[in-house]
Design brief:
Oligomer: single chain
Structural class: mainly alpha
Number of helices: 5
Length: 97
């Protein structure tokens, strides 16, 4: 179960970030945060089904988010194409989350 995580970002911010992201892997990560924030999904096993990813991916993403927040979640990947949203996050860094 994933009830012990607090998503710091506001729902509207996550929606906007999701709508601007083209990379499917990053969209999944943002959607995971949104689903947890809105409490539409609270269990890791349910998240993996909704997002159609392995349970281990959900666990890894949650650990990354716990340790480094959204910026880390959006920039940590072995795939060099993942992390493009970092520029968007950087441009939003002065705005309240």
């Amino acid at each position: 179960m994933v009830t012990n995580i607090r998503i710091k970002e506001k729902e509207e911010f996550l929606k906007e970030l999701y709508s601007k992201e083209n990379n499917k892997k990053l969209r999944n990560r943002i959607q995971m945060l949104y689903l947890l924030k809105t409490r539409r999904v609270i269990e890791a096993s349910e998240l993996s089904k909704v997002l159609m990813v392995d349970d281990s991916s959900i666990t890894r993403w949650l650990n990354i988010y716990r340790k480094g927040g959204l910026k880390s979640l959006m920039t940590s990947s072995p795939d060099p194409r993942v992390g493009v949203s970092f520029l968007f996050l950087k441009s939003q860094s002065n705005k309240p989350i």
